[in-house]
Specification:
Strand order of the largest sheet: 6-5-4-31
Number of domains: 1
Low-confidence stretches: 1-13, 24-36
Number of helices: 0
Radius of gyration: 21 Å
Strand content: 35-45%
Number of strands: 31
CATH class: Mainly Beta
Oligomer: single chain
Shape: globular
Distance between the termini: 34 Å
CATH architecture: 6 Propeller
Length: 438
């Protein structure tokens, strides 16, 4: 089935094959349809320490979460009931439905948050409700580290990392907004489920069946070979079957010879993108720091950080993100993968897996060259037609947009147009740093 575009009748949902992450609706009907999501590129969420993005903001030196709408203004959503925060709010992520936004915060944004530590929040744009998901006894104790939450496409599930203490392993948890229940995703093979190392970043499929996550543990799947060196790997947990699979295997049953990090997963859970410093994920030795996609059904790994002749990037590549429909992967690198990239800086690229074409995303206003400074940390819309990214460039829009801080832009890849997202009411760049996601 094409990713995100199918409807079927199933008698035994527990037997659904890998790569079918479905919305279970009564009577055995299961649906996953990209048309459930609104048009791409209409809404963007980002973090900023600027103080002039909204009227009457205060210079509190904290990071906040903002929502920008195409053709509209910017709204701050990390507010206390009094309107201002007293802590940093970071790492926002929005559901494909654009209704729900999750983020980290050290601020007490609601009365229920009493632990004076980092917490996971969920904002409902439809009702205007802000909820602290981790304001429960299980998560009262926390080491001061970000949880980097992600939400499923429908916004029902939130996946995040949690470290209870400085000398305890960080683990991956899932919250179900419908039932209020928490599930530990990262579970070891032993009867007690304890991992011998920790986890960090995670990502989730559209309806929450699959969770991809990083872990240094060597007791998550049977085929792992514990050694003296613990390298990070990518794993995928299937909620339907309760099983965990290694998504970053080396060839010939060997162990990867270095870390693999930064997972991103397609809507149906079939494709997982990641960056790897390992050189033995393919039959031929690879350069370090490349971006790959793992097909969990075919059990194949493909390098996607290549130019249009198929040559690997000449430098490390970072922060891969796969579109919900599984067709596109974006990342940033200092390598020049197309002739028009002549700025010698970090630039954002997108790889079309269907056509095998690599395209420069962070182009200047003319559309013929890269911007006059570096661009990084991209995100993609469900269909891959809009890319959000951070940049220090000031020539991405006609007439320029001077700023001494990094700003957030969106590129319409179909029409070749850029727009400033981290903007003031006067449509100027904000007076602080703005990031897509910390």
């Amino acid at each position: 089935f094409p990713a995100g575009l199918y409807q079927m009748q199933v008698d035994a949902p527990g037997q659904l094959p890998w790569g079918t992450d479905l919305d279970l609706r009564g009577g055995g009907a299961v649906v996953q349809d990209a048309r459930l999501w609104p048009p791409a590129g209409q809404v963007a969420v980002f973090q900023s320490d600027a103080t002039d993005l909204i009227p009457a903001d205060t210079a509190d030196d904290y990071w906040d979460i903002y929502l920008a709408q195409a053709g509209g203004g910017v709204e701050k959503i990390s507010n206390t009931p009094e309107g201002q925060s007293a802590g940093n709010s970071t790492s926002p992520a929005m559901s494909d439905s654009t209704r729900f936004i999750v983020f980290d915060s050290t601020a007490q944004l609601v009365p229920e948050d009493q632990n004076d530590s980092v917490d996971v929040y969920r904002f409902d744009r439809e009702t205007g409700t802000l909820t602290c998901l981790t304001a429960v006894p299980k998560f009262n104790k926390s080491y001061h580290r970000e949880s980097f939450p992600y939400t499923s496409g429908d916004g029902r599930f939130t996946v995040f990392g949690w470290q209870a203490g400085e000398f305890e392993n960080k683990l991956i948890f899932l919250h179900d907004a419908q039932t209020g229940e928490f599930t530990q995703v990262s579970v070891g093979l032993a009867e007690d489920g304890v991992l011998n190392e920790g986890c960090d970043l995670s990502a989730i499929s559209a309806f929450g069946r699959y969770i991809a996550f990083e872990s240094w543990a060597t007791n998550l799947v049977p085929e792992q070979v514990p050694g003296e060196q613990f390298f990070c790997n990518i794993f995928v947990y299937d909620r339907l079957t309760g099983t965990t699979v290694l998504a970053s295997p080396a060839v010939d049953s060997e162990s990867p010879d270095h870390d693999t990090i930064l997972p991103s997963i397609s809507a149906d859970g079939r494709l997982v993108a990641f960056m790897s410093v390992a050189t033995n994920l393919l039959a031929d030795p690879s350069p370090r720091g490349m971006v790959y996609v793992r097909d969990m059904v075919e059990k194949t790994t493909t390098m996607v950080s290549v130019d249009n002749e198929g040559n690997p990037a000449a430098d490390y590549c970072h922060r891969p993100v796969i579109s919900g429909n599984g067709r596109y992967v974006t990342f940033y690198t200092e390598a020049a993968l197309v002739p028009e990239d002549t700025n010698g800086r970090f630039d954002v690229y997108i790889r079309d897996l269907q056509e095998g074409i690599t395209t420069l995303v962070s182009k200047d206003a003319t559309g013929t060259n890269g911007g006059n400074a570096g661009s990084l940390n991209p995100l993609l819309s469900f269909d891959g037609t809009f890319a959000l990214f951070e940049t220090y460039a000031t020539d991405l829009v006609a007439g320029g947009a001077p700023s001494i801080h990094g700003q957030v832009y969106v590129r319409d890849l179909l029409n070749g147009l850029n727009a400033l997202v981290s903007r003031t009411p006067a449509n100027n760049p904000g007076n602080g740093w703005s990031l897509t996601r910390q």
